[in-house]
Write a structure and sequence with these properties.
alpha/beta; single chain; 341 residues; ten-stranded mixed sheet; 13 helices; 10 strands
Length: 341
Amino acid sequence: MVIKMDYSVHVGFGFHVNCYHSYRGDTDDELGFGGDIRIIRNTIAVLNHWNQQGIPVKGTWDFENAYSLEEILPRYAPDIIEDVKVRVRQFGDENILMGYNNGAMSAMTEDEFMASVQWAVSNPKGSGLGDIFGACQPIIRPQEVMFTPAQASLYQKAGVEGIYLYYSCIPFDAFRTLIPELTQKEALNPLNYQYGEEQNHITVIPIYSQADILDMGSLRRWVVQLHKKQEMGQIDGDVSLFINMDADSFLWEPFPIPHFMHKISCFGGLDGLIREIADLPFIIFDAPYHYMKTHETVGSISFGEDVADGNFSGFSSWAEKPFNRQIWTRLEQARMYARLY
């Protein structure tokens, strides 16, 4: 028996903007941040195009402040900042936190941690999200999705209401392998993360990547399957599918292949993903903080491990890099000098 339910599938797209790359050159060409600028401009053009066609697709931006909003974009691509301002004002795009200087939040002392969050909102150099865009949403997508459970209470103290963590089928992942398998409703809705003492909790928003879309066959197939389960009563409520990836990722652009192959999911970039689902009546294009404020958490999770994107989660893949050990040594020296002087 079919149980008709008036539930929706909310879809959002998120872009992690960090124009400084330790593994690439620091120049305004394809070897450096020139690729970031080109792809972000294309992303904005695609979003604007669909909005002009009456499709209310939204973007969620997490800008790093110190390099991107203070130095690189104002000098080389001020149009990106102005265009995102317009999109926030006219189309409901959201700006969420990442941390002021692209630092590893989990490696910070409490003072450093609080400063990173607070300066991401507002700072003396005027590069805070609140300084530039007038407001921001109290959700964080920490650098490399690093999360230390004991910091849940610190996030609360800093005014952060939610954190994005991958529940992905492949690395980049975060916590999928650390907990019992979630139901589809839980995997596509805000969850209450609880660690240790009662006050150590925060809302976790599971996020996904284009790899998950390929794993499901296509974005259209994924959302149609979800809605069929809603109609059958197997999922009793709305779900939110949030696709998040670095803003400079080639996956946001069409692949340089014959046009007929763009029908393969993800080969058409962001434009292709929107095109796949724009005609479906049960789709609501949304931004995650808006969804979080209009939907309750549907379950609770708990794990005690440090998590980060990369191979097999955790921090080991980052700690093993020689230049990170060098940076850590210098950081400890700086902390020692600060205590001394």
